[in-house]
Please model this.
Amino acid sequence: MSTILISEFITSQALDSLRSVHQVVYEPELHQDREALIAAMQNIDALIVRNLTQVNEEILRGSSNLKVVGRLGVGLENIDLPACAKRNIKVIPATGANAESVAEYVVGAAVALTRGFFPATMATLKGEWPRPRFSGYHEFLGQTLGIVGFGSIGRVVAKKAHAFGLQCVAYDPMLSGDSIALDGFSVPLLQLNNLLSQSDAVSLHLPYLPETKNLLNAVTLDQMKKGACLINTARGGIVDEIALADRLRSGRIGGAAIDVFSAEPAKDLSHFTGIENLILTPHIAGVTYESNERVSQMIADEVNRYLGV
Model:
């Protein structure tokens, strides 16, 4: 029987499936106590984390039996991959399990920003009746959505957006060719500057890497179509928040939905104060009841499989 340590939240059904065949130590707040986490790493065969547990050299060196790390999500920034590889530790992310939730957020946010639902709500609550102003906003149908990063999530976004009648274009430095064929339609692959200049809304789906840090900065934000919207459900460090706030405030960019921030939990977002057409959410795009179930069960199944169950 193997021993599994889980240092963050996992659903009860997935937990039960692990407990049925393994000894499981489930302490969902353990990531907050570094010393306790290091002590708990001894003699475990598997570790399951979300994004708050920092899996680095410090905790790996005390766990000579560790064989596999399951990540309840897709980003791997909190896991030292070279250190795991050096020890022959398998790292398993929940690739694709939250794609539907993220795609719903993106399309919903794009509709809300395009139609100006949030500034209209604020004005109406103040007793105003700004019907003429918001009658000038555009329909979502027929607009162009630029998808930056065209992996599993980006492709689900494209399918949902296509169903809404949007034209989709994509940029992904890892892909070659002129287009990617999906179910019944194709998505042109463009260079980033071309995508930005012709998209009415831009959605980010890239990992946070040295190459993507501040990818959307003062220069690239100014390449966006005037009045376009930006949606970031990827990683906060990909967007220069100060530069974005300046362009939202001036009207150069028409709106934004930001679900991820350069520092999380985000404590100071004062640079966004006073901006109307803005959605700020606490890293929830990929987190729903259903996606939690899918992510948790996928990792439970994969860890069981890797441990030979």
Notes: Residues 8 and 99 are 21 Å apart (CA to CA). The longest strand covers residues 144-148. The two ends are 10 Å apart (CA to CA). The mean pLDDT is 95.
